[in-house]
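Exercise: predict the structure of this protein bound to adenosine-5-diphosphoribose.
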Amino acid sequence: MRVKVGKTSIVLAKGDITDQDVDAVVNAANPSLMGGGGVDGAIHRKGGPQIDEECLEIRRSQYPDGLPPGKAVITRGGKLKARYVIHTVGPVWKGGKNGEAEVLAAAYRNSLALAAQKGLNSIAFPAISTGAYGYPFEDACRVALQAIVQELNELGGSAPEEVRLVMFTEGDFDRCAALMRSFFPGLAKTLDRNRWLKVCARGSRLASPLCCRL
Ligand code: APR
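Solution:
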């Protein structure tokens, strides 16, 4: 599913962030930058030692006390298809009254700004903070969509051509798709079409003869 914001296509996809063939994938890191579980573990494992080494250098030279939540740094992609990894730290969910939304928005915006600064044309985000950090999924998606659109508007001509939101599960894809539909009203029409095509493809009993002609 995709929607155009200025020159940028925001694309919702289901898959593994480490498989994305884009200029940069975004890592849902922790302040140590030394890897962890989830996205962080997958990127460090699959990307190999080059990512670890460059993260260590960033810690040594720029962030000896660790990467603060909301900030973003960049390393090369090592063995990943992606040329670069943008590491950002999302907020740990503590109930929503501790500035979590602002920090999450900053993580998306700073990652996008860094990609633009490097002249990158495509960037893929996981659903930052919605795993180990416990951010409620729908709330996090709303913050993400708002932050991405705001940053794209600010970046103007230097914005990337593609921003991909990579959902790890079918359920997360469907939940984010529903949110995108309400966030981008114009999308609702096209999405219904795509949705019906999916239903047709599944040969669901719900599929009316009409939909297969869509
Ligand atoms: N590709 C895409 N999405 C993934 C993948 C993957 N390979 N693995 C997990 N996800 C999804 C999760 O389902 C969740 O929706 O990414 C989202 C973020 O989950 P986490 O990776 O747990 O990230 P986060 O919630 O930001 O917590 C970060 O967890 O792994 C540690 O070191 C990391 O301490 C940091 C914390």
